[in-house]
Amino acid sequence: MIDDNCENYSETYSNTYPNIKFIQINNEECEESGFINVNYLMKKNVTGWEKALYYFSTHERKYPYVWFIEDDVFFNSEKTIQNIDKNYPDSDILAADCNRRSECRSWPHWKVTDINLEPPYFKSMVCATRLSQSLLTHIEKYASDNKTLFFLEALFPTIAKSYKLKYSTPLELITVVWRRTWKEELINTGFIYHPIKNIERHNILRKKKKTSLKSLIWKMLPK
């Protein structure tokens, strides 16, 4: 999903990346549908997140489950995603573990997160997450009813929990955290990692020998 509409990226890059579909949507289309304010940290109403949620909840609904992955998230190959899908065939949301608001009152984003649902409210790291069409439908309805959404790290888990949808936290997502320097010795082909902001490093890591699962978990335990 392309945030920028300054040029037609399909025309520019389709030959270079023939296996990638580039999607661009006008900001006004999202604004009129209430798909705004999902990622206020970007200092604008509409970002790639709003566009991606809008597209897969209104335009392209043939996929029962959709992965949303930010560019600083590393996974080794498509097989990584496919293996997780096989283990969680019917979960409405796959994401890092979520916490109730009462458990994390110091989370700074609560101050700017206005939620028009009955509590409890939840938050989670969702820079790599899979959502079902059922959850996307509830998100679309919230946007339609309220003419806005709210911060994505509260949006996904709160709506999922509010409508009693199936929330699962795969072991493979314990490596999705807010901040950490991921050393090569902690990279396993079955896991998804955040953050690794140097995109060039992604290609390098895919060529390296990976640590075993047992070794990975041992190294991540608090010393």
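That was protein one. Protein two is written in the same sequence-then-structure order:
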Amino acid sequence: MDLPNIEAYLCPHDVQAIDKWSQDWAWLAGGTWLFSEPQPHLRVLVDMQSLGWSEIIVEKDNLVIGATCPLIKLLQYPWQLEWTAVEGLKSAVSVLAASLKVINVATMGGNLCLALSVGTLAPIMIALDAKYEIWNLRRESHLIAAADFQIGSRQTILQPSEVLRRVLIPVENLKRRVNYQRFGIAATDPALAIVVSTCNSDNSQLRCVIGASIPAPRRIEFDDDLNLDKLPSLQNINFIDNPKASAIYRREITQILIKRSLHQLTCNNH
């Protein structure tokens, strides 16, 4: 879609080249969402592709994924075989309600910062205890836990002019086993519920993250001696209630996915 209201297009090679920021400015990563609908409030686009933040590297004890890394690269990268959690990451990309053309352009940072309740990458990032590095225009940075980044549907803790620079996943957590569950009316529809479960090779540190059925992903911890027939209640969690599905329906589906995910995760280790 054309955005005829855009008055300026900036393509900086360093964020410090941007010396001001206004409410009618926007960062442009892949642009798959930005150009999908009118943006009448925007006047300036700042293209991030020239910043060169598309790396996938190991730095100290973390796997580092740059914010402008195309999602397709996560499917094609030659991952280490011992990083079993990568299958969950690939699932998060594969279940996107998007064409291959979109996945070739859409970026890791764009997906996370858009912060849709149906976002597929945020739950797996939380499940793996990822951290996000945030920059301001002076290149001052700070880290925030993935679990604290998205605070609602289309809402994050990012302040005006701040940008997600990269994602850091502890390498040790990539050795965890992951089970990714998604439920939607159709394969091409946004999910009504997502559940991502993880545990260590000995079935310890069992946890799951729920998404899509609530405004922002949420992690649920379990005891190692969890009884799958007596899962914790979800009654005190506020589920989305809209014409696509009621809150009661989403809660029930989420409970089913949690049980299915944990069963598959633990049984596959026996």
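The longest helix spans residues 247-267. Keep this in mind for the problem set.
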